[in-house]
Write a structure and sequence with these properties.
The chain is of the alpha+beta class. The chain has 2 domains: 207 residues, 3-Layer(aba) Sandwich (Aminopeptidase); 167 residues, Gcn5-related N-acetyltransferase (GNAT) (Aminopeptidase). It contains 15 helices and 17 strands. The strands form 2 sheets. Strands 1, 2, 3, 4, 5, 6, 7, 8 and 17 form a 9-stranded mixed sheet that branches. Strands 9, 10, 11, 12, 13, 14, 15 and 16 form an 8-stranded mixed sheet that branches. α3 runs antiparallel to α10. The radius of gyration is 22 Å and the shape is globular. The relative contact order is 0.14.
Length: 394
C-alpha cells in the first residue's frame, strides 16, 4: 500500500537535466526546507498555504510544486484550479440572465493558473540561487500541463491556463520559458501605500496631507464617534463567524466581477494558522459587530486582506475610510515600509495616499481556435472600472 505522503504527491519527473519537480496535494507532504525558501513571503509558507487547504473557496483546488536541483529544493510554487461555473462571476442586477456569465461558464469556466487568486501581487513562486527564473518557469510550465492532463482524467477539461500577477519590473521572460501563444494582460492595479522616511506616528502622516485631505481625515474621524474598534482573538472570531461572514458577503457581493467566495470558517482558520501574523479588527456599535478588517504581516510589507461592513453604518460613519486610516496608522507605528492595499476601491485608497501599480499576467485558451481571439475575449470579459487618482500630499 502507498504511504500517505505518496498519495498526497501527484508526480515526480526528471526534466531539464539536473532539475526535477514534484506536485503535492497536501501541505503535510511538503518537502523539508519549504519554509526556508518561503521566509520571504508568508503566503507561500506551509502555514499560509494550509489556510487554502483547510478553508478554501468551494470552487478552488490548490496544488503545491517543489522544484529541485540535484535533489535539493530550490524553488516553491502554488498552482490553483478554479471552477467559475460554480459562482455567479458577473453581476447583472437588472436581468436574471447575464450573457457574459453564460459565455464564460460555457467556454472558459475551468481555469488552471500559477499564482494565488485570493491575493494581488507576485505570490506565485519563490526561488533560491539554485535555479534560474527561466529554468524554474520551464518546470512550472510542465507542471501546469501535467495538471491539465490530470484534470482531464477526472472529466474536467481545462479551458484557460494562466500565470499572475507581476509588476513591470518583475515580469519574467515567459517566451523563453516555453509559454508560447499566451496573451499578456493587465487588469485593475495593485494599490500600494509607501511609508515615507521619518514617519514615526500617524501625526507625521497627517502633517504631510494637504488641507483638503486633512479635513477629510478629521471629518471621517468625527463621523466615527460611537464606533469601538477591538482586536479579536481566535475564540472571538469563531464565536462571531456567522456575523463576520454576513458582513463579508455584503462587500463581496457588491463587486461586478467575482471568481470565488470565502467560506464562513476562513478567518478562523487563518488565525489558527498564522497566529499573531494575522490581525482581525472588529468595529462595534452598541456592542454589535458592524464591520471588520484584516491585516497580514508579511516581512517589511503589511498586506490588507478581506473586510466587511454593514452598508448603512458604513454610510453613516464613513466606516471604510476610517478603516483605511487605521491601517495607515498601524503600519506607521509598527515600522512597516509598505501597505499592500490590493485591488478594488482604487479612488478612495488613493485619497489616503496609495499609488496604483500595474500588474500583469499571461493567459491562454486551450482551444487553439479560440486562443486566436484571446485579446478580444479578454477585453470583452475584463470589467472596466473608471476612477480618478487623488493626490493627498502637499
Amino acid at each position: 500500500m502507498a504511504s500517505p505522503q505518496a498519495m498526497e504527491m501527484l508526480f515526480y519527473y526528471n526534466t531539464l537535466g539536473k532539475y526535477t519537480y514534484s506536485i503535492y496535494n497536501s501541505t503535510s507532504a511538503l518537502p523539508e526546507g519549504w519554509d526556508n525558501i518561503a521566509c520571504e513571503n508568508i503566503f507561500l509558507s506551509s502555514s499560509g498555504l494550509a489556510v487554502l487547504e483547510k478553508a478554501p473557496p468551494e470552487n478552488m483546488e490548490c496544488h503545491y510544486v517543489g522544484l529541485f536541483g540535484n535533489g535539493s529544493l530550490c524553488g516553491i510554487a502554488v498552482i490553483q484550479y478554479l471552477d467559475l461555473a460554480r459562482v455567479a462571476t458577473f453581476k447583472n442586477r437588472e436581468r436574471s440572465f447575464c450573457l457574459k456569465d453564460y459565455l464564460l461558464k460555457r467556454f472558459s469556466s475551468h481555469v488552471l493558473f500559477i499564482g494565488n487568486n485570493t491575493l494581488t501581487g507576485q505570490n506565485a513562486y519563490l526561488l533560491n540561487n539554485g535555479i534560474s527564473e527561466t529554468e524554474a518557469l520551464a518546470l512550472l510550465h510542465m507542471a501546469l500541463q501535467d495538471l491539465k492532463k490530470e484534470y482531464r482524467k477526472k472529466g474536467r477539461r481545462i479551458h484557460l491556463l494562466a500565470v499572475k500577477d507581476f509588476n513591470e519590473k518583475e515580469m519574467p521572460d515567459f517566451e523563453a520559458a516555453g509559454f508560447k501563444d499566451y496573451y499578456k494582460f493587465c487588469t485593475q492595479p495593485n494599490m500600494i501605500f509607501t511609508i515615507r522616511p521619518g514617519w514615526e506616528s500617524a501625526e507625521d502622516y497627517l502633517s504631510e496631507l494637504n488641507t483638503k485631505y486633512r479635513t477629510q481625515h478629521n471629518r471621517a474621524r468625527k463621523k466615527a464617534e460611537g464606533i469601538i474598534k477591538k482586536k479579536l482573538n481566535l475564540d472571538e472570531i469563531a464565536l462571531l463567524s456567522g456575523r463576520i461572514h454576513e458582513l463579508y458577503l455584503t462587500v463581496a457581493e457588491k463587486a461586478a466581477f467575482n471568481t470565488f467566495y470565502l467560506p464562513q470558517n476562513h478567518f478562523e482558520i487563518m488565525k489558527q494558522e498564522l497566529n499573531d501574523n494575522f490581525r482581525f479588527y472588529g468595529y462595534f456599535k452598541n456592542e454589535k459587530l458592524v464591520g471588520f478588517n484584516t491585516l497580514i504581516k508579511n516581512g517589511c510589507d503589511m498586506d490588507t486582506y478581506f473586510l466587511g461592513y454593514d452598508e448603512e453604518i458604513q454610510k453613516e460613519k464613513m466606516l471604510y475610510l476610517n478603516m483605511l486610516y487605521d491601517m495607515v496608522a498601524y503600519a506607521i507605528k509598527k515600522g512597516y515600509k509598505r501597505i499592500i492595499f490590493a485591488r478594488s476601491a482604487m479612488e478612495i485608497k488613493s485619497s489616503v495616499g496609495a499609488k496604483a501599480e500595474d500588474v500583469y499576467g499571461i493567459i491562454k485558451h486551450t482551444n487553439p481556435l479560440l486562443n486566436l481571439f484571446m485579446e478580444k475575449f479578454f477585453t470583452y470579459f475584463d470589467p472596466k472600472v473608471e476612477w480618478k487618482a487623488r493626490s493627498p500630499f502637499k
